[in-house]
Amino acid sequence: KLTSLALQPAITPELVQGRVHLKCSYSPPSPEPPVQFRVLWSRLSSSGKREQIHQETTPQPFSYVEMDGANLRLGDTVFCTVTAFRRGIPEQQSLPEDSKGFYAGIKFLPESLEIAEDGKEHVLTVLSTVPIACPGQDDSCKMTLQLSTEDLGSQVPGPPDIALSACQVDLLPEPCSGSSCAAATVTVTAVTDFAQDGNRVSRISARPAAPRDLLWRAYTPRDVKVTVRDLPTGNCYSFTDPHIITFDGWRYDSHKIGTFLLCRSESRAFEVHIRQWDCGGHRSATACNCGVAAR
């Protein structure tokens, strides 16, 4: 048998005549006599076993397989295994060499998030590891992903603990480099809910919006799990003839009549206005809260 030849097979995505293909490339041994290559394509099944999807024998240092949506679908992790043998002597073959697994589809980076109710924005990158193909519509070629959030497993079901900066992102085709053929970003922020509700888990889902390409039609990318760490919340009050207690515990009274700025954030668009009106009549100068506006 031939020894291990360090063929180093690797999978890269490629558009061939407007259709998504995967290419397995490997280094031919030199200066060996002419050899041929047996290339076995496989994918991981849901049970974690490899399923063979295609096999060919070729003298070329590469092999292609099409992502047709049937034998090979988005969401598959794909491998190619290459064996070299001398032409005419197939029993003299090298040890088979595996490529790394190639995940074909949408990836979120990071794959999960742990954030806190502190108002900070966290960048989530959405990328496609395969080219975006738009046959016949090259002028506005893109893949739109609808994003949604959902609360997971809290004792009191309610709105998710997270907010996104956008409800959808557009993946625009670009030359594939690294593991990305198209990428977009969205920011994730934990909702400051003024409730001591413990750490909660939400998820972010993405769905291709009205894809024309059959390859994308039945595809649902993996969700992103987001754990939100609960933080204690500050409170402030204005009550009765108004007694005011500030966030840091100062107490004072305000008996004036008019509209006042009660609170304003210096770091975000948030403020509260209060309207106080006479409620004591002639006997005492007393004002009461009669209106509030919050932004």
TrEMBL record:
One GO molecular function term of this record is: signaling receptor binding
Tell me the ranges covered by the VWFD domain, including all copies: 234-295
Report the domain of life of the source organism: Eukaryota
Q: Name one GO cellular component term.
A: cell surface
Disulfide bond: is it a keyword of this entry? yes
User: Do the record's keywords include Zinc-finger?
Assistant: no
**Classification via PANTHER family:** EGF-LIKE-DOMAIN, MULTIPLE 7, 8 (PTHR14949), VON WILLEBRAND FACTOR D AND EGF DOMAIN-CONTAINING PROTEIN (PTHR14949:SF52)
For this UniProt record, give its keywords in alphabetical order, as a comma-separated list.
Answer: Disulfide bond, Signal
Protein's UniProt name: VWDE protein
Organism of origin is: Vidua macroura (Pin-tailed whydah)
